[in-house]
Amino acid sequence: MARQIFRFGAALGAAIALSASIHGSPARSQPSAPLKLLILGDSLSTSLGVPEGYGFGPALAARLRADGYRNVEVFNGSMAGDTTADAATRLASTPQQYDADVVIVELGGNDMLTQTEPAVVARNLDWILDGYKKRGTRIVIGGMLSKPELGFVYNVTFDQIYPKLAARWGASLYPFFLAGVFGHPALMQDDHIHPNAAGVARIVAGIAPLVERNLDAAAGRRRVAEAR
User: Fold this and answer.
1) Burial of 17 (0-12, 13-18, 19+ CB in 10 A)
2) Active site residues
């Protein structure tokens, strides 16, 4: 499995350093060892179909760096075509590869497209989230919505998966990963499924505040542990 790693250097420009000293950038209070942010998803969170450097991983890394999060490593463990079952199998076989301080779980779109029973999707995601919660990992869920043509019952049952799991595990929920992007031709690729570079930028703008709050929480936990 190819993993993309985007590491921020310790040095930023003088203007950013000055801003951090004045405004109390969260990067200033981060622990000495880099925090690990893992993206666990499918093709929506890979770089599929967009120019190099404009996929979700590098775009999110750039946003975090611009916001002062200098001491973070972003690992993209997403795999195009993955279902929730595929991701769970990968986690079970090589769990050490997917350890993180914060994880973004963006899965379920391929299950929905193949009309997998919502109960199966929920069970797979529940297993994934349970594992991360037990390890003390902060969780951000990138939710998915079902296509209207799948019918009312499927729509309602599937769409309830993500808020229910977020509430159960105390995870941060971004209700629809493609919010503000899906259905907008200027932000989508020609397949009408995947975001283009502009669409990725829109996703990053929407989800970044949730990610940053969880990085802050993870940094705080790390500082407490280091002080003991």
Assistant:
1) middle
2) 43, 191, 194
Strand partners, 6: 74
Cα distances (angstroms) measured from residue 158 to each of 3, 111, 129, 181? 29, 10, 17, 20
Q: How many helices (H) and strands (E) does the chain have?
A: 8, 6
- Asked whether the whole model's pTM tops 0.90, one would answer no
Report if residue 98 sits inside a domain. Answer: yes
Domain span at residue 51?
Answer: 4-220
Q: Cα-Cα-Cα-Cα dihedral of 91, 95, 97, 98, to 10°? A: 60
Identify whether 226 is part of a domain: no
End-to-end Cα, the chain, rounded Å: 37
Tens of pLDDT, residue by residue over 8-21, are 333 223 232 323 33
Q: 4 pairs with which residues across the strands?
A: 76
CB 165 within 8 A of CB 125: yes
Of the candidates 66, 94, 115, the one whose C-alpha atom is nearest the C-alpha of residue 58 is: 66
CA distance 198 to 204: 10
| Residue pLDDT, tens place only, 122-133 | 999 999 999 999
Q: 135: closest CA among 69, 34, 36? A: 36
The CATH code of the domain that includes 159 is 3.40.50.1110
Domains in the chain, number:
1
The span from the CA of 106 to the CA of 84, in Å, is 9
Q: Which single residue is written with the structure tokens 């590869």? A: 97
CB atoms within 10 A of CB 36: 18
Q: Are strands 72-76 and 35-41 parallel, antiparallel or unpaired?
A: parallel
